[in-house]
Amino acid sequence: MTAHRRLATTAGSLLALTLAVSGCTSSGDADDAASSSAPETTAAPEAQPIDWTDCDADIDQIIAGRPGSERDLAFSCGTTTVPVSYDDPDGGTLQLFLVRATLAGQTGRVGSLLVNPGGPGQSATDAAIQSALTLPTDVVNRFDIVGVDPRGVGLSTPVECISDADKDELFAADPRATEAAALDAAFARVDDVAAGCAEEYDEALGAFSTVDSARDMDLVRQSLGDEQLNYLGYSYGTTLGSTYAELFPEQVRAMVLDGAVDPDATLQEAAELRAQSFEAAFDAFAANCVGLIGGCPVGPDPRAFVNELLTQAAAAPIASSRAGETRQATPGLILNGIRSALYQPSAWPQLAQSLAAARNGDAAGILTLADTYTGRNDDGTYSNVVDANVTITCADTEEQVSADQVRELVTSWGATYPLFGADAALSLYTCSAWDSPRTPLPERDAAGSAPILVVGTQGDPVTPLPGAVDMAEDLENAVLLTWQGSGHTAYPKNDCVTAAVNAYLIDLVVPQDGVTCPA
């Protein structure tokens, strides 16, 4: 995976498509699962051993030629089991899959550093591999880098209940359509997917909550032999980390929460802020493009260019020159490609070129960006990132937004946030249609924990800075570090941020609350 480029945020949406990163699938015991446990349970199951195997050769093939692949790293892959339900720890089990990277010649080893890239639904094992290549050498020299695919995700017992054909249809649909018939069709697609997943898993859908994943993480900590947890979480990974800190405050040694999901925002507040932030990110892309010395590939008014392109694609979807590609670029796929590139400024040149090519009749570039965002493979199959994202997100909330409320918001947000408002509003219906037991996220102050470092980015389009501010205020022993940069998440992109996070992780040197790092 590309480091932190496609980290998604909060409410998983079959319509807004706020996620991406390739995942993997495997068999598991999810069909035997009962409902998930409630936050107040006191069950304390024993941690199970991790069955480690040497997977150096396989991972070396995957990372060959990547920056950082010259590091002398040893990779191990492992499996362990956790209870399906913490209310019944002697009942069924789920399998978790882990990857551990260890740098040769470590000195002053602290322990394991668990990493999670977000989603929910993104592969933490992929993130561990990438982090071992890209995190500062000082950190990799002190920590084994460990990724655990959470329950329902990747190579752990997966949630798989949305067909590839359904995903193609959902992603191609025009998310800006506001006519009554189009909205009825959109709601019907979500209803059909929700009904299919409920039929496939029944009560098991409730077993994939963040609260249960946080409990799993503490069992993994014990199995790794660490007295306390060291954790680096991005985007949704900040939700998972802060939930762990709430449940196990005394077990936190060091916790970095980068690109924090706002713990105080309702689904509606979060969706609107996300639409607003992506509009601002598009404006930043546009300003950068028109300021290029060589000229902007999409002309002097990128927003007008995109609006014309979307109109063109709505009338006649755009073909692709990509070998074997049978799809054509619809407005939905174009907007997914745009959203994908807005995660990081480094992708802006690719976006400009891809949009220009699409206008000239070749949508290959914009489809590549869209597929990166949605987890679609070259052969037309998908990872289970969408299935896991929706399942986990809806297991975590009891909030309901009716179809009538969504219709009103589609109109108002579509006018206020022209590119991203309508689909942000549509996303609010997803969990209202979802039929599963719920384990709402707890309020999080993590009273009694060690200091926690929250990192926010001024121009983050995915998890806007107010989320980090709220997270730092809510956690009793947190400090806020702000980067005045752009893109989703900050560490280790900026030298100032990197120095502060390194000192915290290695030596527990906590920066002053409110420190700001320049872009």
Walk me through the structure.
Helix content is 41%, strand content 14%. The two termini are 25 Å apart. It has 18 helices and ten strands. The protein is globular. Helix 7 links the parallel strand 6 and strand 7. The chain is α/β, with parallel strands linked by helices. It has a ten-stranded mixed β-sheet with strand order 1-2-3-5-4-6-7-8-9-10, with helices on both faces. The longest helix is centred in the middle third of the chain and has 24 residues, at 267-290.
Question: Features of this protein?
Answer:
single chain; 519 residues; alpha/beta; 18 helices; 10 strands; disordered N terminus
**Residue-averaged pLDDT:** 90
Order of helices and strands: EHEEEHHEHHHEHEHHHHHHHHHEHEHE
Q: How large is the share of residues in beta strands?
A: 5-15%
Sum up the overall morphology in one term: globular
Detail the poorly predicted runs: 1-42
Structural class computed from helices and strand pairing: alpha/beta
Number of helices: 18
